[in-house]
Amino acid sequence: MLFALNSNICNQVENLASLYQTATPFSHIIIDNFLDESLAEKLLEDFPDISMTVRSGHRLFVHKYELAFNHQLSYPFQKLHQELTSTSFNLFLSQIVGENVFVDPDRFADIHLSINGSFLDIHTDFNIHCSKLNWLHCLNVIIYFNKEWQKNFGGQLILTSEREGLTSKIEPLFNRCVIMKSDDTTYHGCQRLVVPENITRKSIIIPVYKEESIHNLPPRHLTQFFPQQGLRKKLFLSKIYNSFTSLKLRWKKYLTGV
């Protein structure tokens, strides 16, 4: 039993699986009131201050702040780690997506904070675990902690399909969870924030994996950015950046075999 989740969620797996498989522009579901209400409130109360974070390294394409989950975080965060790396939660996710998937207990999640002016350009995520080279990144679980969020604040999660031109925008509301497919076609980003100085956009991002034969894995890559059309200079620079990171990985593999 998953004590961290709202008790009604686990009884809806069949319906959640249907919604996930039929969603557009790619497979995803939105689950409101995802966590047990008491736990969600405690996580918000203990949410790390921006002074504990570091700014994302992809500065041309991203403006946000990050903190890796660690044992110095408060008990509610440790409880979340314990529950969402459990066999029960892996089974819950596997039933939704229709294949065996799992969360990495050692590199569980990142905490994200965004401020006024923050944004995240359209991108696809890294595709292979940094050290487990047969772990394919196939899913993201995102949990939001933003009370009284207003639509005019921006900060919506943008899901888009390059091929079909479909777009979905999801408000980052308190205790809302988005479970979304991750591969080279799942383009997503975050709309620029326009918020007062005392407000931050808070989320926890959990990557999810499946095991694959080394022979079936695609070429490894890091985050690939695809800024919106019309921003010609940034679009040109993103192509250089994506090529550079791919070359960097190939060179590393040549030197180290990893």
TrEMBL record:
Pfam short name (any one): 2OG-FeII_Oxy_3
Domain of life (superkingdom): Bacteria
Domain (Prolyl 4-hydroxylase alpha subunit Fe(2+) 2OG dioxygenase) ranges: 116-204
Protein name: 2OG-Fe(II) oxygenase
Organism: Nostoc spongiaeforme FACHB-130
